[in-house]
Give the backbone structure.
Amino acid sequence: MALLTPLIAMSLFAATSSPPQVTPGEFMMGVQAWTFNRFTAFEAVEMTARAGAKFIELYPGQKLKPGSDVAVGPEMGSEATAELQAQLTRFDVRPVAFGVTSISANPDQARKLFRWAKGLGLIVLNTESTDALDTIETMVKEFDIKVGIHDHPKRADDPSYKNWDPAYVLSLVKNRDHRIGSCADTGHWVRSGIKPIDALRILRGRIVGCHLKDLNEFAPSGHDVPFGTGVSDIPAILNEFKVQKFLGPASVEYEYNEEHSLPEVASCLGFVRGFMASKR
């Protein structure tokens, strides 16, 4: 399995309205903009490029640019969306996902989100709106955009929250359109005491996106570390991607040392590139 080359990534971004075409064994490795949540979306795009990634997952609410009160999302308007697209083009970064975002059970409200996402050329929306699955399925069929059910850690004070459990997420999506699946947040699985490789195997065939993280320990207080130095077993995860013919997108989401994490993010991306190169 190989990462997309810069030439392929550039050609994909040249047609924003059409989804990237990848062959089995390849997947899109980028950065979750939340990694740079102390900065604006404009800055996150630039930092993603500086880290060596060609793909980005945007998140709702991030300020568009310094001095602006406009927040990224379907309510940002056409002019601001065009500004965002211009910044993405400037740094040769392709937006492929958006999340974690709420999705309304009201079809008219949900359609606004999906229409905006389609215009940006997004492949997947990541959400925890499990109460809106009927509407989500309708939108998935109408817009041909995937939806990933994201997992946060187990909540000791909220036993009704079950997304941390991969078996529960599977139960939600297994009888739905194949474009509805899991946004596999490997770090939050570790914080819930679950080995990511075990969760990925439970969800085999239903993974539509990934927030890829390596943590320093199996504990609720675990924090991100450069890939290959923690307990998540990134090589096993990458091998499982190959087995499952996972196409992505996968995003580095680094939530530690957040004002100065660019070197660590670049290290994570470099680890993936090196590991993939060794498997060719």
